[in-house]
Amino acid sequence: MKAKLFMILLVVLFIVPISGAVNKPRKRPVLLRKHETRKNVLPRIPIDYTIDVSNNDNCLQILFQFPLHESDITVADKNGNIVINEQQTSIYEGKTLYIYTPEDYPYTIEITSPAVDITGEITLEEED
Questions:
Q1: I need a labelling partner for 103 at 20 to 30 A (CA). Which of 9, 28, 48, 83 fits?
Q2: What pLDDT was estimated at residue 92?
Q3: Pick the residue with more confidence: 28 or 95?
Q4: Residue 91: which of 46, 55, 44, 50 has the closest Cα?
């Protein structure tokens, strides 16, 4: 009696649900389509990347005239020695960097950010 009850319980709980799952018809896969909307797209505006450099007394003043986020600023002298190294800094309009007692012209300035890479050279102008 117990064996019959065990077999019926086994058939009802395990075999019937498994065989029923095999016979179910498959559904069609859902196709997902992505529609791009141009309503929120902003036009790109060119930015004027201007850096003003002035030599005041015993320091070289580097003044940034543009905003730039998450940028790495590196200034090196003519021998390749790094004079200024700022990592992951935000450049805002009017940010100033100083090089005290500048002697090793030309200086190379490199600005690297997710938006743009800028490389420039700072040279000493000879006055006539």
A1: 48
A2: 82
A3: 95
A4: 50
62: tokens are: 């580097």
- Contact (CB, 8 A) for 64 and 95: yes
What does each C-alpha distance from 40 to 4, 25, 37, 100 come to in angstroms?
69, 43, 7, 47
Q: Which amino acid is at 96?
A: T
**DSSP sequence for 57-112:** TTEEEEEE-S-EEEEEEEEE-TTS-EEEEEEEEEE-TT-EEEEES--SPPEEEEEE
pTM greater than 0.85 (yes/no) = no
CATH number attached to the domain at 51-122: 2.60.40.3080
Provide the 3-class DSSP secondary structure of residue 122: strand
Cα of 36 vs its chain's centroid, Å: 23
